[in-house]
Structures are given as structure tokens and as C-alpha cells.
């Protein structure tokens, strides 16, 4: 099993935290859950953060059986649809944001 994480590093605009979560649940998460071959899709919201660390308000974690399954997920039309929403999502809810992707193996 492997998990691909999309880590949203940045500062949500003041007073927009609840609206950002509502947008994710209504618009982005349904698309993320449609990624082909996904075993599990987890949407995580930052609750407590290291005061000296980066601000991570959102993480998307999708687990796949293997690299081939992940490749299918990354080729999904839903992935492209969700990716197309990201510029507007960033403009609407973030002061600053950088998106990082990491793949982890599960044993």
C-alpha cells in the first residue's frame, strides 16, 4: 500500500477557515473521492500546529494498493477537475499557499 499526500502549506485568510472547510467538503472532496483505484481518501484539517513549523491547514491523503493503482488515480478525470479548481480555491481562501506532494509506503 502507498499513500500519496497533498500538503497545503500556507495561511488561510483571517475568518475564512470555516468557509474554506465548507468549500473543500462541497467541491473538492467529492472529486477526490472519485479518483480511480483509491482505497481510502482522507481529508485532514489542521487543528494544532508546532508554533515554529509551517502552517498546514489541509492535507489530502489517498491510499492506493500500489504504483499502478496510483497511476490510474492520477489519470482520473476527477483529478483534472479538482486540479482546475485549485487556482480559485487559493485566491478565495489563502493569503499564501504552496502545494507539496509526497508518497509514503505502508508496511
Estimated structural class:
alpha+beta
Global mean pLDDT: 97
The N- and C-terminal alpha carbons lie at a distance of: 7 Å
Number of strands: 4
Radius of gyration: 14 Å
Instruction: Trace the largest sheet across and list its strands.
Output: 2-3-1-4
* Helical proportion, percent range: 25-40%
Overview of the structural elements:
This protein is α+β, with helices and mostly antiparallel strands and 107 residues long. Helices cover 38% and strands 34% of the residues. It is built from 3 helices and 4 strands, in the order βαββααβ. It has helices spanning 17-32, 67-74, 77-93; strands at residues 2-12, 40-45, 58-64, 94-105. It has a 4-stranded antiparallel β-sheet with strand order 2-3-1-4. Helix 1 packs antiparallel against helix 3 (77-93). It is globular, with a radius of gyration of 14 Å. The mean pLDDT is 97.
Features:
107 residues, alpha+beta, four-stranded antiparallel sheet
